[in-house]
Design a protein that fits this description.
Layout (H helix, E strand, L loop, with lengths): L11 E8 L4 E7 L6 E7 L3 E3 L5 E3 L2 H11 L7 H16 L5 E3 H15 L1 H11 L5 H21 L3
Parallel strand pairs: 4-6
Antiparallel strand pairs: 1-2, 2-3, 4-5
Helix pairs in contact: 1-2, 2-3, 3-4
């Protein structure tokens, strides 16, 4: 790690603490050359393997922008989308893989999106589960209805 003040090629770690709910480490460093201190934040890298074979860094912003399209016209706030993206990232990182398929990310979005808004879920699922016919939509809607009915039966009001 180069010192941002004098560009010396070495530094010493003075203190380390977890940050961002344990997903990163904040390190306080000191330059042995100029004696000045600075902070760094380290996170485990996560790459996304796209369909065309290109690998790129994981981005919560891409999840939010993709889901925002499905939520257009729905009562879903930016805070809801940020929380959904955080939940998806946590689920993906818990797998312990350094690289993950873009399709797997799309599929990981479905469960929390379903909890957030069922219409947005159907819109998003129609792309990631490759709905091709009206029967695909009808089947997904029937499954949502039966799960809602089962949930209501197990939790009478």
């Amino acid at each position: 790690m180069h010192c941002p003040f004098c560009r010396h090629s070495d530094s010493r770690v003075v203190d380390s603490r977890t940050a961002d709910d344990g997903s990163s480490i904040r390190r306080r460093r000191e330059c042995p050359n100029c004696g000045r201190r600075f902070s760094t934040v380290e996170t485990a890298s996560l790459s996304v393997l796209k369909r065309n074979g290109v690998s790129e860094p994981f981005s919560r912003d891409k999840i939010v922008s993709g889901v925002r399209k499905a939520c257009q016209g729905r009562p879903v706030s930016d805070d809801d989308l940020a929380l959904l993206a955080q939940r998806v990232e946590e689920a993906i990182r818990s797998r312990g893989q350094a690289e993950i398929d873009a399709l797997e990310i799309g599929l990981a979005i479905l469960p929390p999106l379903r909890e957030l808004d069922k219409i947005a879920y159907l819109r998003f699922a129609s792309v990631y589960q490759a709905f091709e016919t009206l029967e695909d939509f009808e089947s997904a809607i029937a499954q949502l209805r039966s799960e809602d009915a089962a949930a209501q039966d197990s939790n009478p009001a």
